[in-house]
Here is the input.
Amino acid sequence: MNTPLSLYDRVMSTRDALAQRTPARPVIGFVLGSGLGRLVGALKDPQVVPYAELEHVPRSTVPGHAGKLVLGHVDGRSGPVHVAMLSGRAHLYEGHDVAELTIAVRALIALGCRAMVLTNAAGGIHTEYRPGDLMVITDHLNLQWKNPLSGPHDERLGARFIDMTHAYDRPLRARLHEAARGLKVRLHDGIYAAVPGPSYETPAEVRMLRTLGADAVGMSTVHETIAARHAGARVVGLSLISNVAAGIEDAALSHEEVTATADRVAQEATTLLERFIPMAAEELA
Ligand code: HPA
Here is the structure.
């Protein structure tokens, strides 16, 4: 019987598969959540790799999550900035192992990405947040209680214990704010709480999350942040507020409405990230 491949081997095999396809080495990686897939339209010379061609990358079954990796570049201030975008992600609630969910992120970092921009659609818990608002993540609450670093330790992937004090990179956050100011886009600073899903929260849970200090709630991102920090990359988190969280208003939540709103309001986020890329590249230089 074949022994299952280690996480390290699966990450490296994914990295090698990508390295064979393109000589470009991306410096910034993106995970594009609901509504944000259109950011790939900003890429020049795009090279598309469907997740189906990457043996170890889990695919999402959720409508609105494309499931492709796009490599390309945008103009920077001193030459092209090579980036890689994961358009669509699989989620914990689809039954995947949490470490498996981080393979694509780790492969991009192994390929050369020094920063990961992790985006998501989220419910607004802060009473001032409205659908369409944007929030840069300053910190998170991992209420999924699953950690992608748990399990046997493999030093090749990173240290056993990692610091999370500065998980969300301050200088890069400052650059994102600078980009937002330039576009006159309102950008909140806030705390993202990750819950297991897939049911949305009850109103009582939303009150609990607010008491815990959460400003927005979603079902993704935190394990990617942990893995990216573990692998040595800097992290930026951006939440697109697609709805007010349950119970803040009387309306019921439906996935169709949440994704439709995310699609409708995603243009500003896309423009913001397009402007941010050259600025982030300068920060990383
Ligand atoms: N709750 C959890 N996840 C979400 C929400 C929400 O209200 N909106 C988008 N993702």
In short: The beta strands are 28-32, 44-50, 68-76, 79-87, 115-124, 134-142, 187-194, 216-218, 234-244. The mean pLDDT is 93. The first strand starts at residue 28 and ends at 32. Helices lie at 7-21, 103-111, 170-183, 203-211, 222-230, 255-284.
